[in-house]
């Protein structure tokens, strides 16, 4: 399996190449060159798999056994989930009226990022050992990513991790999760300022290409393809848990509400849909509503400032993974995607081209509507869950799922 940049200029890479890159050299994000199509028979076979079983199948589909043989891949994934508290790893709780909650919080730090980061760290470790290399992961965090990244690489032989956290701006429990790990390869710094200000020195470091190369620095944020890949399993697992039978024509449709920040999980769901999973994605955002404006009005423009809400993991101004969504929406048109993203980078504001926006509405609006949320309470959301407006708080590591039995 080859990966191409959404901007179409950088040369294609294999999974290992995508795993170790943040952005592609042309500023784009890596995506599979071709998306496989899962037929009904495959879906039926997968429908009885456990969550780790689904991660294994999806990874095998997108990694290629010449790079990572299946039995070794399976071992890595088992190791990744070995410290999860729930025997199913991910659990679907059934509420009333066909509403369900996908419990993605059973990892060590309780953040849903534990799932994708623990696998990603195993993949990194596998290739680093094989190539006898070492990397230093640099992460800035407001909480969830830092804790989960530390947990996933702590003790790894070929990796060090440096985490910058904004002093006083993380929850107490997350600050403790980060500052109480005693492993030699974990380095945590509390810094003055908020999480935006903390990004500045990190950006400066990564802009110094020679320095990055010399010290083998890498990031582990949600633009990493491996994280997106693993997260596809959330959607498959939710789907199969919600559909008692796959005998109907067409297959039953399941609606998945995705609390969204950088849109990594959303991109994963959209790819899952593209390869044949009959889901309808509902994007849940808070007052940081750039995706809402994009879908409603084609207005992909930066707001003046990040607005702080109760759901700090969703307080994101630039949802980087929307580039993947645009690329898919445009039918893998890297020229359109590049023009769009380069204009956004220049002016921080783009009106989606009409063809693209109308495509969204015509073909995908039914599948990808936006719900605006405002940090109230969960019950409200359960009552109002729908394609228009609801109100919800982001419970760490959940997705609401509706459909099936
Ligand atoms: C990271 C995170 C999000 C945002 O996920 P994306 O994939 O970046 O959209 C939402 N909720 C919680 C609790 C998170 O930790």
Automatic annotation (TrEMBL):
Where does the record place the Threonine synthase N-terminal domain?
A: 3-81
Q: Which residues form the signal peptide?
A: none
Tell me which residues bear N6-(pyridoxal phosphate)lysine.
113
Q: Which domain of life is it from?
A: Eukaryota
**InterPro entries assigned:** Thr_synth_N, Thr_synth_N_sf, Thr_synthase-like, Threonine_Synthase, TrpB-like_PALP, TrpB-like_PALP_sf
Sorted alphabetically, the keyword list is: Lyase, Pyridoxal phosphate
Q: Which residues form the Tryptophan synthase beta chain-like PALP domain?
A: 106-328
The GO molecular function terms of this record are: lyase activity
List, alphabetically, the CDD domains matched: Thr-synth_2
Q: Which cofactor does it need?
A: pyridoxal 5'-phosphate
What does the similarity note say?
A: Belongs to the threonine synthase family.
| Matches recorded under PANTHER family | THREONINE SYNTHASE FAMILY MEMBER, THREONINE SYNTHASE-LIKE 2
Q: What does this protein do?
A: Acts as a catabolic phospho-lyase on both gamma- and beta-phosphorylated substrates. Degrades O-phospho-threonine (PThr) to alpha-ketobutyrate, ammonia and phosphate.
Could you tell me what this protein is called? Threonine synthase-like 2
Q: Which gene encodes it?
A: THNSL2
């Amino acid at each position: 399996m080859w990966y191409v940049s959404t901007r179409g200029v950088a040369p294609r890479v294999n999974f290992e190449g995508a795993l170790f890159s943040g952005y592609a050299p042309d500023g784009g994000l890596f995506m599979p060159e071709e998306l496989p199509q899962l037929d009904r028979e495959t879906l039926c076979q997968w429908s009885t798999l456990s969550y780790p079983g689904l991660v294994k199948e999806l990874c095998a589909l997108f990694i290629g056994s010449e790079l990572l043989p299946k039995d070794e891949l399976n071992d890595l994934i088992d190791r990744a989930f070995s410290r999860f508290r729930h025997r199913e790893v991910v659990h679907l709780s059934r509420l009333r009226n066909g509403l369900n909650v996908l419990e993605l919080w059973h990892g060590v730090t309780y953040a849903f990022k534990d799932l994708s980061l623990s696998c990603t760290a195993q993949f990194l470790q596998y290739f680093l050992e094989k190539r006898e290399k070492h990397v230093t992961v640099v992460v800035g965090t407001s909480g969830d990513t830092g804790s989960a990244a530390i947990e996933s690489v702590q003790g790894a032989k070929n990796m060090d991790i440096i985490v910058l956290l904004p002093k006083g701006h993380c929850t107490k429990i997350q600050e403790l999760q980060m500052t109480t790990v005693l492993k030699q390869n974990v380095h945590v710094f509390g810094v003055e300022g908020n999480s935006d200000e903390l990004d500045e020195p990190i950006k400066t470091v990564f802009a110094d290409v020679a320095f990055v190369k010399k010290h083998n620095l890498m990031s582990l944020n949600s633009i990493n393809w491996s994280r997106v890949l693993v997260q596809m399993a959330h959607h498959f697992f939710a789907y199969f848990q919600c559909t008692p039978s796959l005998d109907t024509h067409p297959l039953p449709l399941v609606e998945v509400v995705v609390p969204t920040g950088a849109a990594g999980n959303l991109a994963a769901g959209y790819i899952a849909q593209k390869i044949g999973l009959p889901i309808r994605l509902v994007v849940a955002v808070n007052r940081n509503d750039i995706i809402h404006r994009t879908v409603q009005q084609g207005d992909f423009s930066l707001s003046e400032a990040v607005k702080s809400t109760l759901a700090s993991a969703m307080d994101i101004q630039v949802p980087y993974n929307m580039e993947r969504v645009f690329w898919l929406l445009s039918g893998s048109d890297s020229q359109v995607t590049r023009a769009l993203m380069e204009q956004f980078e220049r002016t921080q504001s783009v009106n989606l081209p009409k063809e693209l926006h109308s495509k969204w509405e015509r073909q995908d609006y039914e599948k990808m509507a936006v719900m605006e949320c405002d940090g109230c309470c969960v019950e409200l959301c359960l009552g109002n869950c729908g394609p228009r407006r609801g109100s919800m708080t982001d419970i760490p590591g959940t997705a609401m799922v509706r459909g099936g039995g």
